[in-house]
Amino acid sequence: MELAVRTITAEEHRRFNAAQPSVSFLQTPAWGEVKSEWKAESVGWFDELDPDGGPVGAGLVLYRQLPRVKKYLAYLPEGPNIDWLGGNVHSWLLPLAAHLRKAGAFGIRVGPPVVARRWGAETVKRAIADERISRLSEAVPDEVQHKVTALRQALRDLGWHPPDEDEGFAAGQPRFVFQLPLEGETPESLLAGMNQLWRRNIKKADKAGVVVTQGERDDLAAFHPLYVETAERDHFTPRPLSYFETMWDALRAEDPDRIRLYLAHHEGDLVAATTWVRVGRHAWYSYGASSTAKRDVRGSNAVQWRMMRDALEAGADVYDLRGITEGLEADDPHLGLIQFKVGTGGQAVELLGEWDLPLNPLLYRAFDVYMKHR
To answer: What global pTM score does this model have?
Structure first.
């Protein structure tokens, strides 16, 4: 195919996404409305030898402007949705770079939705217990996608490179995530696959009378104070309530079941709350909150268990618990997060990660400095 990239409408983009098994919710037109501080554009790849055909690939581009200069970083989080492993990535990325250069981009960042390696729960647990292993990438994986090696080299040959990463959660989307496969599972088999602590905590929450329900938009006002409390306890900067209201409105307008809010109550007290997002056969745990009080009733386990079962009922093949870091040493501040997620019996997954293409190296470096010091 000889491919060309051009702007497509949000409706064309939605139709393309609906025909895929799944795409990241960060690659939906609705996400462009959520990220209001960025300018958004939907782009499509077209086969020039088939002028009447629809797009054969698509992506959401978010443009972040460089201060005082009408030049942009063009960012495609967890995208675009193209044939990354077909062996001809240049035919997809060269027309993308040409299109974005014309749009004023000084640099491009993509996040190929490509799995490089997987580690099962037992492998991760053994790695945590092994004092010789300090990072997940040092453990022998259970699955390796060998085509990724060729893709990495092809990207480098085209001038792309991974952005610099700091320790912990670097800017952008995480390279390591934790996923629970759902295909062929039942609630009983999922529960059996969890570790003893998870099963005990789910049972404890049920015995304590924790009740998990789906909330509506108005319930975001109850979720948000608990989320702020969680941010203060875990030392991250919370987003305002208006962000979640915008997210709810934009995603629900695209699909009435795109986003859900779950609330876990114990004797009338809100003890945990989460947001759940689904596109096709992929469901994500996106935001979570829990109270410091009444932690012993295990509301967080109860709400996660409800979301897993609902994802299974909705036809999802994957329940995605999102990012983890790869540090496995006992004093790593993020180790507890990995241990919590590994208890579900799922898999640690390494994605190809984000890659940058500087179109104007000087402006690209200036933007990098700005982002690090703002």
So the answer is: 0.94
Q: How far apart, in whole angstroms, are the C-alpha atoms of residue 57 and residue 34?
A: 22
Residue 145 token pair: 């996608």
Percent helix, strand, coil in the chain (nearest 5)? 40, 25, 35
Cα gap 334→210, rounded to integer Å: 27
Q: Mention every residue, 6+ apart, whose C-beta is less than 8 A from residue 236.
A: none
Least Cα distance to 135 among 320, 322, 343, 334 occurs for 334
Q: Determine the Cα–Cα distance for residues 46 and 59; give it in Å rounded to an integer.
A: 12
CB-based contacts of 182, cutoff 8 Å, min separation 6: 190, 308, 311, 312, 316, 317, 318, 319
Q: Supply the pLDDT for residue 168.
A: 36
Classify residue 169 as left (phi > 0), alpha (psi -120 to 50) or beta. Answer: beta
Secondary structure of residue 357 in the 3-state scheme: strand
What are the tens digits of pLDDT across the range 311-321? 999 999 999 99
